[in-house]
Automatic annotation (TrEMBL):
One of its GO terms (biological process) is proteolysis. Residues 9-104 are annotated as: Disordered. It comes from Cohnella zeiphila. CDD domains: LD-carboxypeptidase. Signal peptide: none annotated. Gene3D superfamilies: 3.30.1380.10. It comes from the Bacteria. This is M15 family metallopeptidase. One of its GO terms (molecular function) is peptidase activity. Residues 140-268 form the D-alanyl-D-alanine carboxypeptidase-like core domain. InterPro entries: DD-CPase-like, VanY-like_core_dom, VanY/YodJ_core_dom, Zn_M74/Hedgehog-like. Residues 18-76 have a biased composition (Low complexity). Pfam families: VanY.
Amino acid sequence: MLAASVVALTACGANDNGGAASSGAPSESAAASPSSSGAASPSGSEEASPPASDASPPASDEPSASAPSASSGSSGTKTDVPGKSSDSSGDDPADIATVAEPESVTVLVNKQNKLPDDYDPSDLVYPDVRFTFTEKIEKREMRKVAADALEKLFAAADKDDVPLAGVSAYRSFARQKSLFEAYVKKDGLEKARTYSAYPGTSEHETGLAIDVSGSDGKCAATDCFAGTKEAKWLAEHSYEYGFIIRYPEGKEDITGYKYEPWHLRYVGLDAAKEMHDKDVTLEEYTNALAVSGSAGG
């Protein structure tokens, strides 16, 4: 059984620029404020400015490591499955397992499972879609398979008169490390862990995840995005293009993070359809694979 008691936190984390989202929590999306034309004028800055010391856990892309652990999805077994390594508590960096197959599109990256320190996706490209900023910088990139699928998803949304925009996609291990170390230097390790992720444990480092908003950039990576026509469209149609809502509503005790209707994760068409049809998270899906592999072995 999956663990059933965690503090619901945001998974998308502290703002690279230390800005505050409309909800009052720091968000990386604050780096790009929409202009009157609907496109955003980015600050251009990627300096790591930790959030204010009294800031609440942010609504952006860095998972907190401070909460009691959610299940890693292994049901206590040590069976390796694609993109998944053995179960771990995640309470200490030394206890976080390194995934066996980081390039798998169904790789599970969370507080218990991290990417290798030297993982650097070799197929990063710039998806040909709108973003809330104009510059071709790191957080606009995605792995090609995810970028191709994203282009189809955005085109379908346009046809349904629900134009979308990307907010933040890829983030390198080096960038995550720089951010986390800056936060630790400012607030100490214990507090930094309440709003930032250990390097290697942010889904954005896979190159398969992206935060999206409406084309006007309003409510980007903030709670007010929930209930918008864009959020509803994504919930209904993302799986048709190989994406899942990575941190769904009502699954906080499994993912360890609060509902994030803006955070899409590419897992492939078959996996996305199965997770949608069964209403399961990536943790639950991975757990089922592990149990099936154990039984079959």
